[in-house]
Input
Amino acid sequence: MPRTFVHTPTPLLRPHPTATFQTTHHEHGEAFQAQVQRTRVVSIGIGISDSTCEINGDIFNRWKLPTPPPEQRVRKIGARGRNSQEQSIFFRLPVEVRRLIYIELMGDRRVHIRYVWKKPSPFRPQPIQSGPRWDWWHCVCDRSNNFPEDPYFDRCPDWECEKELNVRSPKINGVEWLRSCQLGYEEALEILYKANVFAMDRALDTPFLISRLMSRHCASNITLMDISFPVDVGIGGRGYNESDWMSTYTAFFKLFGETFHGVRRLRLQLQMPPWEVFCEAFNEQRVDLIRSFLEPFDTLSGGREWTRLLLCVPYDWRERLEKFKESMPCQDKWEITETMWSPRGILNCVGMST
Output
């Protein structure tokens, strides 16, 4: 039997509409403002700015993201001693067969993932200290094993819904096994990160947090990502700072060169304000702002060979953005696709994520 390996690093994942809504421009604007107020992230957000992070910090401190020390993040997977597992029947199987087993256990899935400030899960053993804390949450998507045609139709529950309804969302099975066997950990970890689509939604902060928490080796193994967040520009409201948001948006694309440099298929869904609201004061400044949505994406497309690179926007934005795309130097390397997402649609689905 495999030898227990207590000190193996913990894996990232822990087991356990467009034509139907008749609304005014004003109602659309208010609906979108309400949604963005709940998910607003600026450059000083927890986990985005360096000043909001603390190495080996307290998981019970809401205002500091607890991050691992730099030397831990660069540690190589095979740096620890391991048992050859000569007595294990499993490791006598051909490596190709073991790989198929790993894929069946923990691959070929679409996985929603967040690192959040939340109450302890009711489905995990009672912790020594109770109360809210920083913790991982993940859910295997009910549209797993692919990129759904439109993320609008993805209605998986989030961590709040899981707690309130006392219903455990589907998890990846077999991940805890990685903590018990170093050889299995080394073989299967690549499958975990390369063979799954990682979906991140609700806010722009998740990719930043994960880039600070995940080892560089694991981050570089991620090949498929599906990211969605509200676009916090052109709508005003409490706490609004357009330049802060655009700085964070630009920094987001740099993560793919610094951390997620193995990603080969990416869909980015922008939850845009209604075009009618955005263009009420349309002028040259607004033209520059629209171009600034596309330029980082176009630059990213020219940095590597992509299997597919998609920018997903609401129906009333697509045609207008396509015109701006025509002037981009790498326009042939990426696509603009349409989503049925709308502010009213998201507000009609309380506790659910798009």
Q: What stands out?
A: The chain is about 35% helix and 15% strand.
